[in-house]
């Protein structure tokens, strides 16, 4: 069976982000996706209306049901929704130290809607950071997690907090013609990529990138190769993204 990524992620009914993005991206990377669902959200491509989080016990029960059943190599997390779910995931990861772990520190949706109480989530993420093989924050999340405005200082702070590798995604920075992503391992910059900024807003681009990285890691890629494969793949996916309604964020076309 294909190496498996176990995702802790939420359901987005629009199919752009969350667990559907994870399943499609991981499938495209060549790996198999399994899901422990953290929350059911109510949203479309324009707006988040609310969510109901899974209980900690239900979340762990889902993960434990498949942990010895599938060839899990990597755990990936997206929306966790509550501090209880973050604690549950930390407990699960500590029980399985051989799994690699991709932490996409989701705090708010790209549309701006809340996916949990940001202040409490930020505090709880501190427990997960040292458990991660790689973190994939955008610059809004990076600043929120570290309390540092300056991006270099914020990145170094993340390493002081126990991070091993960090992909800083520059999509939220004021660079009208390009997006710069930078990969750091053990505090050192390893590579940076610049791609042309595509027109429009996208729903689920972060989930897709982190999941593709997880899928490549599950198949044996080193971090740098996994990130580069994922960035190249995502650019194509976003270029052919579909516009659902006027004013809606574009839905990445992952097939
Ligand atoms: N997970 C869920 C369930 C979501 O609904 C969202 C955004 O709406 C995200 C994660 C993060 O999405 P993005 O990849 O756009 O940052």
User: What is CATH's topology name of the domain at 4-132 and 201-239?
Assistant: UDP-N-acetylmuramoyl-L-alanine:D-glutamate ligase
- Widest beta sheet: strand line-up: 3-2-1-4-5-6
In one word, what is the shape?
A: globular
Query: Uncertain regions: pLDDT < 50 for 5+ in a row?
Result: none
Number of helices: 8
Q: How helical, in percent, are the residues?
A: 25-40%
Number of strands: 9
Tell me the distance between the termini: 21 Å
- What integer is the average pLDDT? 97
Counting helices, strands and paired strands, the structural category is alpha/beta
Associated small molecules: pyridoxal-5'-phosphate
CATH class of the domain at 4-132 and 201-239: Alpha Beta
What about the largest sheet? 6 strands, mixed
Strand content: 15-25%
Task: Give me the strand/helix succession.
Answer: EHEEHEHEHEHHEEEHH
Radius of gyration, whole Å: 16 Å
CATH structural architecture of the domain at 4-132 and 201-239: 3-Layer(aba) Sandwich
CATH superfamily of the domain at 4-132 and 201-239: Ribokinase
Please summarize what this structure is:
With 255 residues, the chain is α/β, with parallel strands linked by helices. The protein is built from eight helices and nine strands. The protein has a domain at 4-132 and 201-239: UDP-N-acetylmuramoyl-L-alanine:D-glutamate ligase, CATH 3.40.1190.20.
Please describe what this structure looks like.
With 255 residues, the chain is α/β, with parallel strands linked by helices. The chain has a domain at 4-132 and 201-239: Ribokinase (UDP-N-acetylmuramoyl-L-alanine:D-glutamate ligase, 3-Layer(aba) Sandwich), CATH 3.40.1190. Helix content is 38%, strand content 23%. The protein is built from 8 helices and 9 strands. The protein has helices spanning 18-29, 56-67, 83-95, 118-128, 139-146, 151-160, 205-218, 223-239; strands spanning 4-11, 32-43, 48-53, 72-77, 100-103, 134-135, 165-168, 178-185, 188-196. A 6-stranded mixed sheet has the order 3-2-1-4-5-6, sandwiched between helices. A 3-stranded antiparallel sheet has the order 7-8-9, sandwiched between helices. The longest helix is centred in the C-terminal third of the chain and has 17 residues, at 223-239. The two termini are 21 Å apart. The model has no long low-confidence stretch (mean pLDDT 97). Bound molecules: pyridoxal-5'-phosphate. Pyridoxal-5'-phosphate binds at residues 9-10, 12, 17-18, 41, 43, 78-79, 106, 109-110, 115, 203-207.
């Amino acid at each position: 069976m294909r190496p498996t990524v176990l995702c802790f992620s939420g359901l987005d009914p629009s199919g752009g982000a969350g667990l559907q993005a994870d399943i499609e991206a991981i499938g495209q990377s060549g790996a198999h996706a399994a899901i422990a669902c953290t929350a059911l959200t109510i949203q479309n491509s324009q707006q988040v209306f609310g969510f109901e989080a899974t209980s900690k016990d239900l979340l762990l029960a889902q993960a434990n049901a498949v942990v010895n059943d599938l060839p899990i190599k990597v755990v990936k997390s997206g929306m966790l929704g509550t501090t209880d779910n973050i604690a549950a995931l930390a407990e699960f990861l500590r029980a399985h130290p051989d799994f690699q772990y991709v932490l996409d520190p989701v705090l708010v949706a790209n549309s701006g809607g809340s996916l949990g109480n940001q202040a409490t989530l930020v505090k709880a993420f501190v427990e997960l950071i040292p458990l991660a093989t790689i973190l994939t924050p955008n610059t809004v999340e990076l600043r929120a997690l570290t309390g540092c405005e300056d991006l270099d200082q914020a990145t170094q702070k993340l390493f002081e907090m126990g991070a091993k590798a960090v992909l800083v995604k520059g999509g939220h920075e004021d660079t009208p013609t390009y997006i710069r992503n930078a990969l750091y391992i053990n505090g050192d910059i390893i590579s940076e990529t610049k791609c042309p900024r595509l027109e429009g807003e996208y729903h689920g681009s972060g989930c897709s990138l982190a999941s593709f990285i997880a899928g490549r890691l599950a198949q044996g890629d080193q971090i740098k190769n996994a990130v580069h494969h994922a960035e190249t793949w995502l650019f194509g996916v976003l270029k052919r993204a579909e516009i659902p309604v006027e004013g809606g964020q574009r839905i990445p076309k992952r097939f």
